[in-house]
UniProtKB/TrEMBL annotation:
Residue span of region Disordered: 143-185
Protein name, entry field: SNTG2 protein
Gene source species: Calcarius ornatus (Chestnut-collared longspur)
Superkingdom of origin organism: Eukaryota
Lineage, opening ranks: Eukaryota, Metazoa, Chordata, Craniata, Vertebrata
Keywords of this entry: Actin-binding, Cytoplasm, Cytoskeleton
MF terms (GO), sorted A to Z: actin binding; structural molecule activity
Encoding gene, per UniProt annotation: Sntg2
Subcellular location: Cytoplasm, Cytoskeleton
Length: 517
């Protein structure tokens, strides 16, 4: 998707926001800032422009100003009136900060002081200006080029409202003065949007949360490139604008990730293909609140589920994953609780019921991956569509691995005997003596009617005898019971999917949620 638009760049330190222009292409997000550039003539000073204004009997200096030291911003030109002194110079622009008035430095002056100085400066006023690229949004400076503007100024000046200097002021000369006009040799200037920062979107990540917290930014997010370069906090005027930009950027990042996957898969065997990969936030257990969540890069490739701190760029990078788990032995789980709460919240909003609950403290779109020895990883993604993709991708990767593997055998014991327990895609469950290899019992998947475990090492499997219809209980002990239970789940789910794929699709929580919204 390609897209352009105006947004705000929010500075968390100063708590100010200023206007920027965003340009989104397939591969890059560019941030542009307005600046005044010299388009012809010799520019002696790129930053400062010195302009002489001749006060006119009607229209005065032809400009209005805002700001002042009391608001920790310089005094800036907020309006330029058509066909009046300031506009006729061709060298002054809305957003220019006034540095000097007739040689007097006013960078630390209050609004009222600058107004007084300009109104009492005589018929010819020389001002030095510099364009304020990061004008705080509270000044509400118009972004367009100067145009006709009516006089909204009152007798009292205010730092956040325009003080008009297009009145006569204290002119000593009642005769009409010649208009201010650009001299032929003088440089010509234009206000333009200039590229300030370009962020490559390949392997980039997006965050809507204040760093390390559960606090959701209002209509704002941050984009971080693979090398860590950040756009800063991009703030939008409406929730709809924010959602549209978030979706557009996420789509472009996903498309580039797909390209990277295709390139990586050219170097991999058919049994070791990347099924899906992307950024998530992982919740860190047992840490202070400032490090509640951390960015992690997940990948489903071949027989394994990988967790990285940074994306794998080369073939060698795959061995440096923080964690690697066998796909048959993990269990993907969406957190239904939030989805239910959200549907209830949606219904309340639809009915116009407003209740005082702080919904900023919980992250939506969360899933867990349960691994061996009862451990788990808790992840969050930015969009519901991403959650649906992860659910489908885990399902597909696990089913492919089950079909490739065919069977998995685990060492176990019961009443002092060392046994082997096999889960087989075609045959079901088989238990045999590890020494003699004699089969002790065998059941199909369809014969498993229930199970219970002690949460540690021991499990009871309840099978129905085909002939007698009686339930037979088989007890076994495993070193890593969780991994075995996940493996049983994976094989049965893959078996059901091979027989009835529509049933598996109907169980998708994330896609149901996306459809309902």
């Amino acid at each position: 998707q390609t897209k352009t638009g105006i947004a705000l760049l929010y500075d968390e330190v100063s708590e100010n926001a200023y206007d920027i222009r965003l340009k989104l292409t397939k591969e890059v997000l560019t941030i542009q800032k307005q600046d005044v550039v010299c388009v012809s003539g010799s520019d002696h000073s790129a930053n400062h422009r010195t302009v002489t204004l001749r006060r006119q009997p009607v229209g005065g200096l032809g400009l209005s100003i805002k700001g002042g030291a009391e608001h920790k911003v310089p005094v800036v030109i907020s309006k330029i009136f058509k066909n009046q002194a300031a506009e006729q110079t061709g060298m002054l622009f809305i957003g220019d900060a006034i540095i000097q008035v007739n040689g007097i430095n006013v960078e630390s002056a209050t609004h009222e002081e600058v107004v007084h100085l300009l109104r009492n400066a005589g018929d010819e006023v020389t001002i030095t200006v510099q364009y304020l690229r990061e004008a705080p949004s509270f000044l509400k400076l118009p972004l367009g080029s100067p145009g006709p503007s009516s006089d909204h100024s009152s007798g009292t000046s205010s730092p956040l409202f325009d003080s008009g200097l297009h009145l006569n002021g204290n002119s000593t000369n009642t005769a009409p003065s010649s208009p201010s006009s650009p001299i032929a040799n003088e440089p010509k200037y234009e206000k333009r949007w200039l590229d300030a920062l370009s962020v490559p979107l390949s392997m980039a990540r997006i965050s809507r949360y204040k760093t390390g917290t559960d606090k959701l930014r209002s209509n704002a997010f941050e984009v971080l490139a693979l090398d860590g370069v950040s756009t800063g906090i991009l703030q939008f005027y409406t929730a709809q604008e924010s959602a549209d930009w978030l979706r557009a950027m996420s789509t472009n990042i996903s498309d580039l990730t797909l390209q990277n996957m295709k390139m990586a898969n050219k170097c991999c065997s058919p049994s070791d293909q990347v099924i899906h990969m992307g950024w998530v936030n992982e919740r860190l257990e047992g840490t202070d609140s400032s490090q509640l969540y951390k960015f992690k890069f997940l990948a489903l490739k071949g027989s394994s589920f990988y967790i990285f701190s940074t994306p794998p760029v080369s073939t060698l990078d795959w061995v440096r994953a923080e964690k690697i788990y066998n796909l048959c032995e993990v269990l993907f789980k969406i957190h239904k609780l939030w989805l239910a709460d959200d549907c209830w919240l949606q219904a309340n909003l639809y009915l116009g019921i407003h209740q005082d609950f702080d919904f900023e403290d919980q992250r939506p779109y969360c899933f867990s991956v349960l691994v061996g020895h009862g451990k788990s990883h808790y992840f969050n993604v930015e969009l519901g569509s991403e959650l649906a993709v992860w659910e489908k991708s885990f399902q597909r990767a696990i089913f492919l691995e089950v079909q490739r593997t065919g069977s998995k055998t685990y060492m176990c014991s019961w009443q002092g005997d060392t046994l082997c327990f096999t889960v087989d895609f075609a045959l079901g469950f088989t238990c045999f003596d590890s020494k003699t290899k004699n089969v002790l019992w065998r059941f199909k998947f369809s014969q498993l009617k229930g199970s219970s475990d002690d949460g540690k090492t021991r499990v009871k499997l309840l099978f129905q005898n085909i002939d007698t219809k009686q339930i037979e209980t088989k007890e076994l002990e495993f070193q890593d019971l969780t991994a075995v239970l996940h493996c049983i789940h994976s094989f049965i789910a893959a078996k059901v999917a091979s027989v009835d794929p529509v049933f598996i699709d109907s169980q998708s929580i994330a896609r149901k949620y996306m459809y309902s919204n």
